[in-house]
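I would like you to sit down with the pair of lines that follows and say whether tokens and residues agree.
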Amino acid sequence: MSAGAVGRVAGQSTPTVGLEAVAGGFAAPLDVTEREGTLYVADQVGTVSRVDGGTTETVLDLRDRMVSLSAGYDERGLLGAAFHPDGERIFVRYSAPLREGMPGGYSHTFVLSSFDASGDGIDPESETVVLEIPQPQSNHNAGSVAFGPDGYLYVGVGDGGGGNDRGNGHVSDWYDANRGGNGQDTDSNLLGSVLRLDVDSGDPYAIPEGNPLPDSDYPEQFAWGFRNPWRFSFDGEDFLVADVGQGSWEEVSLVEVGGNYGWNVKEGTHCFAADSCPSETPGGEPLIDPVIEYPHGGAPVSGISVIGGHVYRGERVPALEGRYLFADWNAGGELFVAAPTEEGLWETSVLETTSEFAHVLGFGQFDGETYVLTTDSGGPSGDSGALQRLVANDGGGGGNGDSGNNGGGGDGDTTTSSPGTPGFGLGAGLAALGVGWALRNEK
């Protein structure tokens, strides 16, 4: 880990916290980004809204450019947003209809675009398409976009959907024990990877110096071996990527350039669908274990679709300084906290809150403080979605609302478009539909 990054604070007591309402009325708020002290919320249904002084105003509407979403459960939509560090452009990641010339039978198009934000608002007619990727199936779309400390844009890309990293749109790889897939392939497509782009050079981007595959057909790749990286963040030079598991384990990895994080040979630190598995590729490339993992149905932390968060660097809850805050989509009313140990997996526990919410969809961080995106709905519908800020448990805050200001997973494992929440899993989808856990392991 880099100097000044996550401290070794395992073993400290874990406080109880609250959530202070900042803005509400969203359907499924998945991301929050900031420009000049003002927060902007990306809602899965296709809108970006400015939150300022207790008011919420839609400043970008992409609904007419997106696929039609299922109100009950869907993993497509407007999945991520990030302002360029200079504040002049906003980069958004959304799901569009399948473009002409893309493979027949595919589901939709992964679109990464930028818009001019140099004025008071965001110009909807200024769209510059940065990257398009054919998505073979409707799920495992990832969606995170974030600028790193190096000034480059990082983009999460899922493995293409379905179960086991196989089926329509999934290629063969070196690992014969599990037929497929995109997570272990770097030669055929960009799926199952985290990308790094230089959006300040080239047309529409250049490949940053230091990307590990400069001579390949897909040099955008920064790291690979991911199933569905649902939210990542930087803490100094440290890059923490949460990856939604399939049927047994959820994980968060400390990601480095050129790293291979194991899917679909491994799920977390465990062999996937095999009694034994290699720890490296035939070429000697190590399969890197996560720093955090937790089971589906275990203790003290449990869930079905990890929601990546941030290392806390704020002042409102000093007891959490240097610890990683995250969640699981299915762990209603709970947040999680983890901190490094001297060796092995990080110490992870439940961070109890005094607030009520059904699902966490994402996190944000500004001036070191942690913001939490919540909803009481199982899909992109209704108006229960809220932007909330983490505070010490002093009896204030909590609930969904539109007061205050900014101070300033999963996954359907089918090849169909069955309902689901963005980037998550069949377990999440069944929970969203009220079916519960009974079929969770039938992925």
